[in-house]
Write a structure and sequence with these properties.
Blueprint: H1 14-26, H2 28-37, H3 46-56, H4 81-92
Length: 95
């Protein structure tokens, strides 16, 4: 599915490429594409899942504006390959 803009942070390692591919599948546009193809159960709604996770944890909401001093503009962290790359690395050290 090609429903996202090119991410310049993809290159580097195979893990980063996989993490970026995974983040793209978490986005609302990917959910809409999947729901067009098949009837999805409520628990398969990734957008709703991440909204619930965000409201119950310390994962920051995205920021759509910036003043370049104290506030930066960023995507929801689960929609970035960097976050998934680090999550996979951290999961690898779990017992």
């Amino acid at each position: 599915m090609n429903h996202c803009a090119q991410d310049e942070n993809i290159s580097g390692t195979a893990t980063r490429v996989l993490a970026t591919m995974f983040d793209r599948e978490q986005k609302l546009s990917a959910h809409f594409q999947r729901s067009k193809i098949q009837n999805m159960a409520t628990h398969e709604d990734t957008n709703e899942f991440w909204n619930k996770v965000q409201s119950g944890t310390a994962i920051p909401k995205c920021s759509t504006s910036t003043n370049d001093v104290f506030k930066i503009k960023f995507e929801f962290v689960t929609h970035t390959g960097i976050w998934w790359d680090e999550t996979m690395q951290n999961a690898g050290v779990c017992d």
